[in-house]
Amino acid sequence: MNETASPTELEAWLRRLEAAHPVDIDLGLERVAEVAQRMGLFDGPVAERIISVAGTNGKGSTVAMLESLASQHGLSTATYTSPHLLRYNERLHLNGQEADDATLMDAFRAVEAARLAGEPVSLTYFEVGTLAALHAIRSLSPQLAILEVGLGGRLDAVNVVDADVAVVTTIALDHAAFLGDDLASIGREKAGIMRSGRPAVLGSRSLPASVREAADSLPAPAFALDEAYGLEQEAATWHWWRRAGERITHLPDPGLPLDNAATALAALALTGITLSPEACRAAMANVRLPGRMQWEGAWCLDVGHNPQAAAYVATRLAEWGVAGKTYALIGMLGDKDADGVIEALSPVIDAWVPASLEGSRARSADDLAACLLRHGQEVVARAASPAAGAHWLEGRLEPEDRVLVCGSFFTVAEVLAARGNPAQTGRDDTSIEGMT
Fold it and tell me: Which residues form the Mur ligase C-terminal domain (predicted)?
């Protein structure tokens, strides 16, 4: 990879892509498949092995642990995830490193050339990004590609390629406008990444029956948590087992959900890789995932934005006691279940700072404050932005206090940027209202 493309060029391309399609989300494979065909992406596999990961929560942590496991086993890797926190480059990792601007620009140009080679095809920002990632991955031809499916499954752009192993992590109510308003419908959509005759890993104990039914109807051999594989906790370590007789003991806590860790191990084993206990222990000890239970001093940042994700965060915070107060700086989009998230987090939060987000789907600090007050929660301030809320909290925390930043990728990203560049993003208290 070279470094000829400047960040300015990449940012210009991304702005253009954001404005090119009339809607942000346009599920369906016909347009994507047409451009993929023109690009030659169907002429052969983009990688020796492909694992696709779908679900409501736990996709990012499963992908991160798969990447760490594969790397520790000496495999060349590529991973594609979305969305990003601070830089678009985060979405594509090649051998553990973020793709540079030049690699992304080359891939975007390849997509654009194919899109216009014949009758022009309109693509969304995510669809262009997915095709660009597949182009870059095929150029590397890694031993393992790990693809995080977007909000859907069956009609998601990532599903244009056939995975050797399909993983479904969890199913919860989210994106109802696109996936359905009941768990059975959402489960069927997510299960659409499965392929006949290829392993399907079911990574939750509470998946709706529709997921297993989808696997059986293909048929795809299903490997379910607590049935085909599982985990046992013991003091500070845990053990993984597989029904075939395999067992790996004394694995360190990766700081991410252990169900997802066990699922990552099962998925990698099902690609035909022989697991090394030493490599697995090293992978779990070294995995990192920005924005998921990410600790920066006394600040914990987590992008969870639905009740299921919030419940996991609450459980971990309860395990890690604190001598002082726990504040929550929360910013959420308007189409998310704010009441459910607040209810899940309220047992571990002493005081709240709701923050307004920007954009057409944004929810205001006042709206969040109203939700919090309905749940009997203490609102100590209302912030015009997550950065303003972080700035206000930094000046008022006692040494024993801690802060949870949560509710959205946008919230976590802005606070990470603000804390990394205080001179650029710090704001005075005129951005704060309703202090009590």
Answer: 291-409
109 and 161 both lie in a single domain: yes
- Sign for the CA dihedral angle at 96, 98, 101, 105 comes to positive
User: Is residue 1 included in any domain, yes or no?
Assistant: no
The residue type of 312 is Y
Residues 82-98: pLDDT tens digits? Answer: 999 999 999 999 999 99
CB atoms within 10 A of CB 410: 23
| CATH code, domain with 39 | 3.40.1190.10
Give the Å distances, CA to CA, from 12 to 9, 19, 99, 141.
Answer: 5, 11, 17, 28
Cα separation of 266 and 188, whole Å? Answer: 22
Q: Which domain holds residue 126?
A: 7-286
Residue with tokens 């979305």, as numbered in its chain:
82
DSSP state of 99: P
Contact (Cβ atoms closer than 8 angstroms) between residue 281 and residue 250:
yes
Residue 114, pLDDT score: 97
pTM assigned to the model: 0.89
Segment 101-148, tens digit of pLDDT: 999 999 999 999 999 999 999 999 999 999 999 999 999 999 999 999
